Model the fold of this input.
Amino acid sequence: AILEQAQDLEQKGHRFYLKAAQTAVDEKGKEMFTTLAEDEEKHYDLIKRQHASLTSSGKWTSSPGIKPVNVDLGRELFPANREDLEKTVTKKSSDWDALLFGLDIEIKSYDLYRQSASQMEESPGRQMFEFLAGQEQSHFNMLMMRYDSLFGPVSWRY
Done:
């Protein structure tokens, strides 16, 4: 069920980022969204292979293209009070909407992958979830940097 949910998130992310790339006003934003769409497609393919392996053999398969990553699985990607982002900024353009939606997709994906990895013993499956959590963390950071460059840094209140 987790792999099916992960596939769904990656497909939604891929479709969204492709559309965002087509509609973005900012050229750097278009490039970023295109890169994110390509990454989400690769993630989907990775998860799909694992799902097929588990379905057919009941075992995780190794993924040679995945290198171990150091991800703090206990750390949330976004401050606990996510509403602060929406309270801090005002709507300026469709690029703002796309960035906000992209951040939401990355948060959901990261949370799913970090929780899944935390619950597993050392295995190719855990390695895959840690890799994906690291990828989503990078995507989140990329989106936040783009957000900051377009709309200014967000001041978080804790």
Observations:
- Residues 28 and 146 are 8 Å apart (CA to CA).
- The longest helix spans residues 27-57.
- Confidence is low (pLDDT under 50) at residues 84-93.
- DSSP finds five helices and no strands in the chain.
